[in-house]
Structures are given as structure tokens and as C-alpha cells.
Design a protein that fits this description.
This protein is an alpha+beta fold and 406 residues long. Helix content is 36%, strand content 30%. The protein folds into three domains: 139 residues, no CATH class; 92 residues, no CATH class; 108 residues, no CATH class. Strands 6, 7, 8, 9 and 10 form a five-stranded antiparallel sheet that branches. Strand 2 and strand 3 form a beta hairpin.
């Protein structure tokens, strides 16, 4: 390479400060476009339209590298500085999405900028496109001339590119449905987010349901506002025999705890059946006045009313409903030819015929005796592509690291 060509090449190099300025300008254009046109209508980019858009992006990268390889803009887009600055820009936009509540907002400024709907905003689209073009040009740059030493770099960057594309373009094609499954009969009709009806390629029926809860907690509530007077966590008492705590000058102690109880006449007795609820016999002593009280507490059910203990004219001792620890359901799955059973829980979904099944709710009135559950079904046709991209990225990174150690 001659001295003049080196000088020309160096003159095209862009500093990090200018690179970050370019990213800021691109995001600013996204903000202006968002203010003028509002959110993108991503529902219109479902398959095959998203494939067409993806084909156009790939075509622009290939043609740009082929026809304008030596131009300033392509040289910058394929540079490390462009990749790092565009990644930082995209990360900042993504962080805003994580920090701000997404959905309907009463703040006009946030709504106008689309900061409450980042994923469908022009700001997100501009930062995403810049990142895809930067990674795309950086990857294709190493393809010609093809060298063995560049293979792992290409695999790593191409894997990252594929992962980002599949995660973003694929989210548009995701289908989210919910179906109510009971012990009475098989069901195969699920409903979408807008109430649209969908017929599944299989039927579901509940066989068994089990629920495990944490012990309910006892706290002090304001009698007039029914607001909890003390903070949750360490300032509440777990309903467990012999547990005690001091809340608002009251020494609270659990004398007896019944995980499942019913009210028979005027007596609280242990009983395990539909409609029962936890109950605790407690004592409360005011450490300043030495006032002593005892009584039953219960969060209430069909066979036992809500019970509380009045401490004074402003405060009462109450039992909060127990929080769910884990619930799981055993389902019968019928595909028209065969029937089999599969258990799913909160942290253990099951995938069948491309549908991921998650248990999201159950009959709260019947609690652990629930005879129906709500199952969410998610179909993501791009998920295998995401996994492929991650695999490429991980393998490429490992070999780049290994070669660096050598």
C-alpha cells in the first residue's frame, strides 16, 4: 500500500466522539419522526412482510459493500467504532424501555416521544436499524477476501446479528392465547389478547391441581382507611405457632395456627375442604398500657368469615391472604389420535406442537381444590432462529478467546 493510499484511508477514519455523535443524530431523527408520525404499526409487519423488510436490509448491506466499499459511510459502518457506538445507542434505548413503565401513560411528554411504547417507536426502530447495518457491514467486510483467521469473527458477529433480527422481527409473529381448562371436559378453543377465537391443534383437560402457599402474614391495619399501617416484610408476622413480634407498641404472639379451618357455630376447628381458610388464635399486649387482647384471625373463605381483632378505635389486627409459593397442574393432552398427560408449573412450562404452555391462574375461590386453570399458550416460530444465533455467537466467542490465549 502506497503512502498516499494510507493517507486517504486514515482521512476516512472517524473518531469515537464523532461516531457517538452520529448515533445521537440518528436517534434524534427517530425522536422527530416519532413526534410527527406517532408509533409504528408493527401488526402490519407480520409474516411475510417482515421477511420482505429483512430481505431489503440484507440486500442493502450486500449491495452497499459491493458498490460502495471504499466510501466514507460504508467504511464507518463497517468499523469497530461504529459497532461499539451503535451497540451503546441501542442499549441506552433498551434501558429506557426497562426503566420506564410500558403501556398507557398519563404523561403527555412521555407519550408524545413514545417512551411508554419503546418497542413500537421510531426511536427503537432507528437505533435497531443502525445496529443491524453496522454489524452487517462489519461481518460482510471480513467475507472478502475470505480468510481462515476471520471465520470465528464472522461466526460470532453473524450469530449476534441473527439473534437480534430473530428476537425483534420474530416478536411480531408471536401468538399469545389463553384457554380455560377444567376437569369437566376437553377444551381446544383459546382466545387472543383482543378476544379473537382460535382453535388449537390439540385439546386440553385438567386431571389434577396442586397448590402450595406461604403461611399468611399478620399485620396492623387502619380501621378507617383499611390501609396497612406498617410496612410489609419484617414488619409483619408470619402466622406460625409461637411466633411473635412488636408492631406499633403491640406485642403480638401466635398462640395457635390452623393452616385450614372452618367456623362451626362459634368455634374455629381444623378442617381441610373446599371453602376453608387459614386461621390463627393470637394474643396482643400493649407494651405501654399493658392492655391484653386475644382472638381469632382469618383471611376468610366460604366456610369461615374474615376475622380480625380490634386493638383500639383506629387500628385492628388482620391476617393477609397467603401468597402463592407454587402451583402446578397435570393436564391430559389429546391430539385426535393419542392422549397423554403432562404436568406444568410456574417455572416448568411444556412445549407441544410449537406451543409453549404456561399456567397463569386458577379458581381462587376453590384454592388448592381448584377444578379449573388458565393456561397461556405462546407460539414463537422464530425461537429456533434465536437459539441458532446464540449458538453461533457463543461458539465464535469461545474460539476467538481461545485463539487470543494462544
Amino acid at each position: 500500500m502506497s503512502l498516499s493510499s494510507k493517507t486517504n484511508q486514515n482521512s476516512k477514519e472517524v473518531s469515537y466522539s464523532v461516531s457517538f455523535l452520529i448515533v445521537a443524530i440518528v436517534i434524534s431523527f427517530g425522536i422527530i419522526t416519532q413526534v410527527v408520525f406517532g408509533n409504528l404499526h408493527l401488526e402490519k409487519l407480520i409474516f411475510p412482510r417482515n421477511i420482505v423488510v429483512l430481505f431489503l436490509i440484507i440486500s442493502l448491506i450486500i449491495i452497499g459493500n459491493w458498490k460502495f466499499r471504499g466510501s466514507s459511510i460504508v467504511s464507518w459502518l463497517s468499523s469497530t467504532k461504529a459497532a461499539i457506538s451503535s451497540i451503546v445507542g441501542f442499549t441506552v434505548v433498551t434501558l429506557i424501555m426497562g426503566l420506564l413503565t410500558q403501556g398507557t401513560s398519563t404523561n403527555t411528554f412521555i407519550s408524545k416521544l413514545g417512551l411508554n411504547t419503546i418497542a413500537s417507536s421510531w426511536i427503537y426502530a432507528f437505533s435497531l436499524l443502525l445496529l443491524l447495518f453496522s454489524l452487517g457491514f462489519a461481518t460482510i467486510k471480513r467475507l472478502y477476501p475470505l480468510k481462515k483467521s476471520n471465520f470465528w469473527f464472522i461466526l460470532n458477529h453473524l450469530g449476534l446479528w441473527v439473534t437480534i433480527v430473530a428476537a425483534n422481527f420474530g416478536s411480531i409473529d408471536q401468538t399469545h392465547l389463553r384457554i380455560s381448562v377444567s376437569t369437566a371436559k376437553y377444551a381446544n378453543i383459546a382466545f387472543g389478547e383482543k378476544g379473537e377465537m382460535n382453535i388449537l391443534p390439540f385439546s386440553l383437560k385438567q386431571k389434577e391441581f396442586s397448590l402450595e402457599t406461604y403461611n399468611p402474614r399478620i399485620t396492623i391495619m387502619d380501621s378507617t382507611t383499611t390501609m396497612i399501617s406498617v410496612k410489609s416484610g419484617k414488619n409483619t408476622l408470619e402466622a406460625k405457632s409461637n411466633n411473635s413480634i412488636i408492631l406499633k407498641n403491640w406485642n403480638i404472639k401466635v398462640l395457635q395456627y390452623l393452616p385450614s379451618a372452618e367456623l362451626t357455630g362459634t368455634k374455629i376447628v381444623a378442617f381441610d375442604s373446599i371453602g376453608t381458610a387459614p386461621a390463627a388464635y393470637v394474643s396482643a399486649r400493649n407494651v405501654q398500657t399493658n392492655k391484653q387482647l386475644t382472638g381469632w384471625l382469618s383471611c376468610g373463605g366460604n366456610l369461615i368469615t374474615k376475622m380480625y381483632l380490634s386493638l383500639d378505635s383506629e387500628h385492628m389486627l388482620v391476617m393477609l391472604p397467603p401468597a402463592d409459593k407454587e402451583y402446578k397442574v397435570l393436564l391430559y393432552i389429546n391430539n385426535g389420535k393419542h392422549t397423554f398427560s403432562k404436568q406444568i408449573s410456574i417455572n416448568n412450562p411444556y412445549t407441544y406442537l410449537g406451543w409453549q404452555m404456561y399456567i397463569v391462574d386458577f379458581n381462587r375461590d376453590k384454592a388448592k381444590w381448584s377444578d379449573s386453570t388458565i393456561i397461556e399458550l405462546v407460539n414463537d416460530p422464530w425461537q429456533p432462529v434465536v437459539y441458532m444465533g446464540l449458538f453461533m455467537m457463543i461458539v465464535g466467542s469461545l474460539f476467538v478467546f481461545w485463539r487470543g490465549k494462544k
